[in-house]
Write a structure and sequence with these properties.
The protein is an alpha/beta fold and 715 residues long. The chain is built from 27 helices and 19 strands. The structure holds acetamide (ACM).
């Protein structure tokens, strides 16, 4: 240990006595002066062995970051001072960040913000102005953040940038085992795309307002800035209309947001730099509208809200003036709740059945030379656009609305493939990418990470590229509810958030996963349950008893894809009333262990005879898989909800035995008897079959291990 590090270790101890006592400005100056002397010498903080070295746990990664010298120790009494512009939004955001800092570190920093001259202040927030009162898509979200041993300086041209910078600041906090500090850094940051969204479907399953707020907290943490709120669909109309009260009276099953709650969400999101874009999906996906207002429908009715999933026939009647009058009044009411500049009208998956079967609508089409349902929908969209525009809103629609003649002012949200996004941009439309970002598909974070709204080698012109505003992760809720939704959104949405914020060159998958794990823990500290829900669901299924063995099994498994689940839902007539409390609902998509195991195996296989430590670690792991079987089997005897997965503990034990044997051959260099590989691969293949809508996520690496084992050729 060098003399300097001894000294550094002692300084915090000195301060620790004062933790909890408010620091005066004077005491601050003394401390800062001491620290700056101590850290002025050679780049201590740069050396990776230094306990004060910068560890990059930022997500999304900033556009530009330089690691500086020294560090800023987090001490009681730290106070933020705004030395330029400030308003309530900024003050509240700073106070929130300070509260979070306090809660996460136990260091009693001040949550009251000071205003005025920054002389000697250790944490200065300099914001030039408020930015637009209602956040727009061109909001300036840039900021600079400097951390030195002297203090923290956050500068932003507008409040939106300061909000982003505060999140980075929170992510910078590290500790050296005894004290918390911010490493010396200089960050200049701005987003790559202005539109970084998360769509939440609250119709298939209702998501409570408290959960929406928590999700907004998570969004802010990873710098997502658009909450696309899918508020109506076949299974439920989810926002109160005072003009048309039957929308929720008959169309929601009692589960909806009051206007007051929706306004609260808009304000809550705005305070965190997030715009809310409401979606009212028309003319299809409208069963819930026509239950109470059958006069809007293209068929006779009566109608009911759907309790199954898929595409249904009910569709609004585009051939009646009264439909547009209704929509005009309704949209006029909703724009008072949602002040943002965009309004999403859905427009997806119209099957046209009711239009084709209605002679009046067919006559209407002939009269207007509308050849088919697509042409009729285009007609409907043009009339709808006039209404939306009359309220000074920009209309967004899913990519089905992109047909010849669609006015360029409509923004296209691409979900059926990247092609429609490029096509929209070429035709002069703004576009948002959601294809490839469907969280309900249970895709791995690494796959989302590869999806880029403007991929490398894009043949779009610079102007066309500018029309691509960004992307949105989509959380459709057929198979999630308020209890499970966190584990389906987080942490994978953070990988998408990084793709949309950070430069394209930030694309190292292993490093993304490393930071994603850290981010997931941070998100959990905000109250999001993607980690704890697995535990509580397993506990609920298993009852009393040791959960350990079951958790070993759960770690190695994940839900099947959306397609497989949808097929199952169809076959077994699963409805919105069926509880989401099965083995599949407890498991997390792309669980952290999957990628870790893949890396462990890859490392070992590079040189199995040299990587003895890795081999031993793997053997230990495989032995846990073997040991878990009796415990899980015993538990399953008294856990009906786990019964469907009864094949799994035995399979895991088999996989464990294969692993132990593979390590034994590989580490010793011994050859396996002829036919060994084929036998093991057959076991692995058998385990690949989905059971209870879940699958093992460890099979690929295990297979590679088996394939690497030398085998006697016999003869
Ligand atoms: C959609 O997934 N139907 C937009």
């Amino acid at each position: 240990m060098t003399g300097k590090s001894i000294l550094l270790n002692r300084i915090p101890a000195l301060f620790r006595k004062k933790r909890g006592a408010p620091a005066t400005a004077g005491s601050w100056l003394v401390r800062v002066a001491m620290l700056s002397v101590l850290t002025a010498a050679p780049a201590m903080a740069r050396s990776s062995s230094s306990p004060f070295a910068f560890h990059n746990n930022l997500m999304p990664e900033p556009a530009r970051l330089e690691v500086g010298q020294g560090y800023f120790l987090l001490l009681p009494g730290l106070t933020a001072t705004t030395d330029k512009f400030h308003n309530a939004r900024l003050d509240h955001a700073i106070a929130r960040a300070m509260r979070q800092l306090k809660e996460q570190t136990g260091v009693v920093v001040a949550t009251k913000v000071k205003h005025g001259a920054s002389n000697g202040a250790a944490f200065v927030v300099s914001v030039d102005g408020p930015g637009a009162a209602v956040q727009t898509v061109i909001a300036d979200e840039s900021y600079q953040l400097e951390v030195t041993s002297q203090g923290i300086h956050l500068h932003a041209p507008a409040v939106a940038g300061a909000l982003a910078g505060l999140q980075t600041l929170l992510q910078l906090v590290q500790n050296n085992g005894t004290e918390y500090f911010l490493p010396g850094v200089s960050i200049q940051d701005h987003p790559r795309f202005p539109w970084r969204g998360l769509m939440i479907d609250c119709s298939r399953h209702f998501i409570p307002i408290s959960k929406i707020k928590q999700i907004i907290n998570g969004m802010a943490a990873v710098k997502l800035n658009v909450l696309h709120w899918h508020l109506s669909d076949d299974q439920g109309f989810r926002i109160q209309s005072k003009v048309f009260p039957l929308l929720t009276k008959d169309g929601s099953g009692g589960k909806f947001y009051t206007q007051q709650q929706a306004k609260e969400i808009v304000a809550y999101a705005h305070a965190r730099g997030i715009r809310v874009v409401p979606e009212f999906d028309v003319p299809g996906h409208t069963s819930s509208w026509v239950v109470g207002y059958p006069q809007l429908a293209s068929a006779k009715g009566p109608f009911h809200i759907q309790d199954r999933f898929g595409v249904f026939n009910p569709v609004l009647d585009p051939a009646r003036k009264s439909t547009y009058q209704f929509l005009n009044k309704f949209i006029g009411e909703m724009v008072k709740i949602f002040p943002g500049p965009y309004f999403n009208i859905g427009g997806d998956e119209v099957n046209g059945v009711e239009w084709r079967e209605n002679p009046r609508i067919q006559a209407f089409m002939r009269k207007r030379h509308l050849k088919n349902s697509a042409a009729l929908q285009a007609y409907f969209n043009r009339r709808l656009l006039k209404i939306v525009t009359s309220y000074h809103k920009r209309m967004i629609g899913w990519d089905e609305v992109l047909v010849p003649g669609l006015p360029k002012s409509v923004t296209i949200q691409s979900w059926r493939g990247y092609k429609s996004l490029a096509k929209a941009a070429r035709q002069g439309h703004d576009g948002i990418l959601s294809s490839g970002y469907y969280l309900d598909h249970m895709t791995r974070a690494s796959k989302y990470y590869e999806v880029d709204p403007v991929p490398e080698g894009s043949t779009l012109t610079p102007d066309e590229k500018k029309r691509i505003l960004g992307g949105e992760a989509c959380m459709w809720s057929e198979y999630v509810d308020g209890t499970t939704v966190d584990s389906r959104i987080w942490p994978r949405a953070a990988a998408i958030a990084e793709r949309l914020w950070s430069p394209r060159s930030v694309n190292n998958v292993n490093d993304m996963y490393r930071r994603l794990h850290v981010e997931s823990l941070r998100l959990a500290s905000l109250g999001l349950t993607q980690i704890s829900q697995e535990w509580s669901s397993l506990r609920q299924m298993a009852g009393a008893g040791q959960l350990g063995p079951l958790r070993v099994l759960a770690k190695t498994m994940e839900p099947v894809s959306w397609n497989q689940r949808a097929r199952h839902a169809n076959e077994y007539k699963i409805t919105t009333h069926d509880p989401l409390d099965h083995w599949v609902d407890a498991l997390r998509p792309d669980p952290p262990f999957r990628h870790d195991f893949k890396l462990m195996v890859a490392r070992y296989l590079q040189a199995p005879r040299r990587e003895q430590a890795s081999g031993m670690k793997l053997t230990k792991l495989f032995e846990q898989w073997i040991a878990a079987e009796p415990g899980v089997m015993k538990m399953m005897e008294h856990a009906p909800l786990l019964a469907q997965a009864r094949a799994r503990p035995g399979q895991l034990a088999q996989l464990g035995r294969i692993g132990v044997a593979a390590v034994s051959y590989l580490s010793s260099g011994e050859a396996a008897p002829q036919g060994w590989k084929q036998k093991q691969l057959a076991v692995i293949d058998a385990a690949a079959k989905p059971v209870a809508l879940t699958q093992f996520d460890v099979l690929g690496p295990l297979k590679r291990m088996v394939e690497s084992v030398p085998e006697n050729s016999g003869g």
